Amino acid sequence: MTILLVTLLTCGLYVLTKKLAKRYPILLFHPLIFTPALIIITISLMGISPQTFDQGAVVLTHMLGPATIAFAIPVYKHVEVLRKYVVLILLGVISGSVVAILSTFLLGLLFGLDYHLLISLLPRSITTPLAMEVSEEIGGIPALTIVFVIITGILGALIGPMVFKVLKIKSPMAKGLALGMGAHAVGTNRTLEYGEEATTFSTLAMIFAGIITILLGLSVLPLLVNLL
Amino acid sequence: MRRIGIISVQVAIIHIFLFLAIGLKALLPLPLPTSIVGLLLLFFALFFNLIKLEWVEQGGRWLMAELLLFFIPSAVGIVNYDELAGVQGLVIVLVIAISTIIVVGITGLIVDRFEVKQQ
Question: Which of B11, B33, B112 sits opposite A169 (nearest CB)?
Fold first, then answer.
């Protein structure tokens, strides 16, 4: 019963938000800002606790798994591109992953973030299911990591295009790779406006960034954490 | 209506790969998350023509297009963390913003410059 209610409520408000965003394309109407805000207001008015909501959301959250698996389809469709540019993709993604983790770590230290927040923040630039796993591995709080992953996605998809303008990055390949690296699936979603080539590279970058960060999560990250 | 039917069936087919991945992970100690194992399984199934692209393409496109919907419950989870309210929360947003600018900028520049060189 709760599952049905939560699913219908979330889908309804999501569709409403998408309609609003189409008419008024402003940041406030982003589906990951406006819809959660509406839900928080609605459930508190209806007297539903966040925990109950969370229990009812299993079906929706579960769909993240199949949705991640579905990214095999664009990779398959562009397997020739992958073959041709594998070195460049790996170069971009390995540098990106290292920069993502190191810059987060150093900035977090600089701003004096609490230990648990900092640890949970480290895997923030990769897609949710993978970030949760890395977070758990290095002693973070996976639920907090999810929130940081989402903030990263929204900010990356928003700031990315501005960064491209300032640095005069024009190639769809570079834009796609950078957005997939820096803002995972939400960034990849944004590349739809740059054409299929950009989306392909973004998807590939997202997948490889996830895998590389997991490998770093098992090797280098525990060393960084030990420094604290 | 027909489209909804096709998408439902194809999402179910994609679920088969999720279950295969869960099974495989239970058998072998793979260091990869279930969703990535499933992604690799689906990729190889397509690559070796074990399944046809048309069997999963529309369902897959729908899943990817509505991806943000599946993130919403996690975003609602933010209310469970008091530490994120106030200054600490703002600092985190700032850290993420600065770091993301650096990551997107450096990755974009590297790829952009190397691409020019290759051509």
Answer: B112
